[in-house]
Amino acid sequence: MTPARLETILKEATKKRLLVIGDLMLDEFVWGKVGRISPEAPVPVVEVTGESFYPGGAANVARNLREFSERVSVIGLLGKDASGKQLRDLLGKQQIDTSISVEDERVRTIVKTRIIARQQQVVRVDRERIAPLAPEHVAKVIAAVRKALPEIDAIIFEDYGKGFLGSELVGAIAKEAQAAGKVVAADPNPNHAIDWSYTTVVKPNRGEAFLAAGILPHDSDVPPGEDKDLQRVGAALLQKWKTQLVLITLGEEGMMLFQKDRAPHHIHTRARQVFDVSGAGDTAIALFALALCSSATPLEAADIANHASAVVVGKLGTATVTPEELAASFREDTERA
């Protein structure tokens, strides 16, 4: 894709309205340095030098979209606690609409704390209580999305398996959105069985894709374009999920795009260096869906998602990519060609 074509797609993207639905989290990063081993146990002692907080989970998908579009909303579950308020405040500062998210005093806002020393993650601490969304909240969310649907260009379901997304909620929204001609994207969780019918694209990673297809994940010593098992998995998921597209992310090997009645297409990674893979999948689904509803072809959307993911893995923390960084990545490719 030429830089000029990218500019055309991104210009159209600024006008789009995107809705993200899924598990909301607060990502906390504790930064420090390690100078000794604890006398209490054979573990490093991290001397804290700073803390950072970012929107995580589905909120990070919304945060990635907000770099490219002014009209981004997110729907998820927040507790009426300090972490929930902090997450809502963070999203508010970025002008991401949370007005139809669900607040429940009975739940605890999910917080993931990553302790980083010497640019490496030492440990992650999760504070969460997984439970299905209450029936009254399911009905409220479906009604709210139905009312907003005429103004929405794309919906992204982000499933971290924490209970917000279920078959009833996804099925009702996806069916109406597809009938209305909207782009419907899903980032699935392998441990959470949801029928992804009526979606435009589903984006699992390699391990998730194999599990969803009922095939034991395994390493491959052949290039993705020659990997018969990977191709079999992609074809099976197109049939199982009855979706138009399946985009399988492959880490350092890039991505593989599967389309009905077309040969699979391998997109090579553009990553130069990898510091942190936190949130790279969020960036991929966000940019793929955004590009797809902004006149990009599936191959162009995959190329954009691949470049965007390559940028964020070169950053520490739950990062996003800016339009300027994305354009620079494409220019570098053009200059090397």
Please identify which CATH superfamily we are dealing with.
Answer: Ribokinase
Count of distinct structural domains: 1
CATH class: Alpha Beta
Largest sheet: 8 strands, mixed
Strand order of the largest sheet: 4-1-9-10-11-12-13-14
* Residue share in helix: 25-40%
Number of helices: 10
Secondary-structure blueprint of this entry?
Blueprint: H1 3-13, E1 17-22, E2 24-37, E3 44-57, H2 58-66, E4 71-75, E5 77-79, H3 82-93, E6 102-104, E7 110-117, E8 120-127, H4 135-148, E9 154-158, H5 167-179, E10 183-187, E11 201-202, H6 206-212, H7 228-241, E12 245-249, E13 255-259, E14 265-267, H8 280-292, H9 298-312, H10 323-336
Parallel strand pairs: 1-4, 1-9, 2-7, 5-6, 9-10, 10-11, 11-12
Antiparallel strand pairs: 2-3, 7-8, 12-13, 13-14
